[in-house]
Design brief:
The chain has 201 residues and is α+β, with helices and mostly antiparallel strands. 42% of the residues lie in helices and 29% in strands. The protein has helices at residues 7-12, 15-23, 33-47, 92-111, 120-123, 156-169, 173-183, 187-191, and strands spanning 3-6, 52-63, 66-76, 79-84, 115-118, 131-133, 139-144, 147-153, 195-199. Strand 7 and strand 8 (147-153) form a beta hairpin. The chain is globular and about 50 Å long.
Amino acid sequence: MIKSFSAKDLCSRSCMQIRMFDLHPEKRPVPTINTETGVTYQHQIALTTDNVIGEELRGTYINENICINFSNDIVCNDKIIEVKSVNREVEDWYFNSSILQCAFYKSLLLKSNKQLITAKFYSDMGNPIVKTTVDDNIKYILYFGNKKYNIIVTDPDSIINFFVNKAKATFEWDSAKEFDLNYKFKEYETLKNYFCFELMA
């Protein structure tokens, strides 16, 4: 049986958290005002960006019994943009986490069928369903506050394998706990040799 995971969860939550929310979905946190602000900010950027195909376009990567869904904030003909609304000084871990998320999403894109479609939650909000197929060489850019970073993935297989193993570790409490002991708060350091990024002018 194929088990589905959110790429965002795999990036931002511990193994133990993912397992708990899988067993008790009612305990999942509800969207906050910050989430809504972020979506509004993202839409404002989309309105002022050229060649936009759509917002919140979902891709799917399947590895044996693991399915990972990832939603891209803004997809254009020539680039994909991940938007982080930053209105204050942030700690390094948040910047690193944002960079790693982009590297993971780009890796999934490279190893999937490149087909993207509007995420269900976004179409349920009344937005039109958009489908597109993107090119391997499409740029993946992080908008972090008022700065832009180009994300370059050098070893997508190693990045994906790490998160596939994390997904598998959530199947049991013991394996989830062991994974967290080894990698919690260390994922960026573990994977940083498989991608790089550059500040854009």
